[in-house]
Write a structure and sequence with these properties.
Blueprint lengths: L2 H23 L9 H21 L4 H4 L1 H13 L4 H13 L6 H15 L9 E2 L2 E2 L5 H10 L27 H10 L3
Helix pairs in contact: 1-2, 1-4, 2-4, 4-6, 5-6
Pfam families: DUF6624
InterPro entries: DUF6624
């Protein structure tokens, strides 16, 4: 196990959460993507990418459970870097037995959310409530399989092509402009 990298990853995730908490206390975390938070996310993701290029994706066997969780948090928060998030998604999929399957589900849905597609596992919410899912029954089955908490069935919004637009964020101009600028759409 690489203890030096493990400590670094844990510290990066800790710093991320500290900055988030401070911005939340100050009432500056939202609306929108706070520039201070974005800088932390980009810096952490850039360093994580260097680590990945050196040792591969930081799995449990390489850096331990806590540091692997920290790496996932860094990836999950790297929303300004879609290419990086998708790269990590592929690496996590390839290392399925060495990473948390729940983390894989969250990352899958997060990518779908930013691309404007329905999610699969029901992990993402926005100001409207639960972000729409591909298939309600499949989502319920997958959540049970992954031992994720069940949702109140009334809160589940299933994607219906005849009702929903292809991009599930059609009316959020500021968000859509940001998604274009960073490369999600």
């Amino acid at each position: 196990m690489d203890n030096r990298i493990a400590k670094e990853l844990i510290e990066m995730a800790r710093h991320d959460l500290e900055v988030r908490e401070e911005l939340l206390k100050e009432g500056k975390l939202s609306p929108g993507y706070n520039p201070d938070m974005e800088r932390v996310h980009i810096k952490n993701a850039t360093r994580l990418d260097e680590i990945i290029n050196s040792i591969g994706y930081p799995t449990k066997s390489i850096v331990g459970e806590e540091a692997s969780q920290a790496a996932w948090l860094i990836v999950q928060h790297a929303i300004s870097l879609p290419v990086f998030m998708k790269k990590c998604y592929t690496l996590i999929a390839e290392a399925a037995d060495q990473v948390s399957p729940q983390n894989f589900a969250y990352l899958h849905d997060r990518i779908c959310y930013f691309e404007g597609r329905p999610q699969k596992f029901g992990t993402q919410f926005d100001s409207r409530g639960m972000y729409p899912v591909e298939n309600k029954n499949e989502m319920i089955r997958l959540r049970k399989e992954l031992q994720l908490n069940a949702h109140d069935e009334k809160s589940i919004v299933e994607f219906i092509p005849s009702v929903h637009k292809i991009d599930l964020h059609p009316d959020d101009e500021e968000f859509n402009l940001w998604r274009k600028q960073v490369g999600w759409v």
